């Protein structure tokens, strides 16, 4: 991937030296897995009738593949078409001394490839991986899919071989330039996704406690980052 | 937009009656503006060499247009190509009694159209709208772009005429089906984006206070939702 491909915030297309330091492409698998681990909703891009379509959907992954659901995909990917799956975490708003240097701190992964619709045991395994990634513990706790439900579910596997990661972090880039003398405040407003205490389904009988695996997974304020 | 286009979480492609109630397409402008207002990072889909590319970028909007930055766009949209801009807010993880009914509560907007690269005063105004949306108050506080910086900035305007909104909310859909008798806990883990106290650029002189417009915009825990 061209490290310059990604529009990266409020700043324009010119990449300054500082900007290049703030934003870095990463190629190691560990960086990819770290980004994938920190969320469970991706944006899936497909081409339909020559136009792009971008839809949010849930994903999971293992060492080799990203798994995602597809109603959109089941219709538009039947012929075997390239997709782009992007996972983005917004970590902060970067407030610089100049409008031009404003930006966003983020971690983002892009995965390109030809997804393959799974069937049989591979489909069940893909669904398990996806479920356990988004809602750990629920595969064993909830009722597993019936044959009919499985038939109504489309799970795609996308190789992680063609993937790139980009991370922007740190303070604004104009702290050592001429704008530093303007006397303006500059810095970062950190942003974080937090979970709130689980809300029981009103249809539940009174007094049914939140299972330990759910309570443990989503401690309020612990900063699990789904997007 | 086909209300069924959007893959919507852990559940499969079959749309049940409940699911249709949980997930609703909305066509009113107020719903569109509410989704756009709640964030400042979108996922921009473009077609490059026949393949989709999905990149996160910052946006702003007014009554008629969405404005976004483009380094990616400046290269791939020069010929005037349709884009899809998707803005998604993940509001909760829906834990059902069955794996099949698991899902995500979300608000999402999709905008399709032919973006137009702005120039002259329209470009400055587009950048102002974008800046004021993502970082309200900064257009007046920070140093405005120089002619050179403006020349290095590409701002696109995308009509809001072709847009759709989809919202999924509420408890899981299997509270009144046969699975309700399983005795399993079900509910929603709400998710929210929160801001943390601003972190000053280490390059700032000591004692420069956070300006009031920044402190006021990002009260910790106030739930401004950038994604």
UniProtKB/TrEMBL annotation, chains A, B:
Q: Could you tell me which residues belong to the region Disordered?
A: 1-22
Matching Gene3D superfamilies: Electron Transport, Fmn-binding Protein, Chain A
The name of this protein is Flavin-nucleotide-binding protein
In its UniProt entry, the species of origin is given as: Actinoallomurus iriomotensis
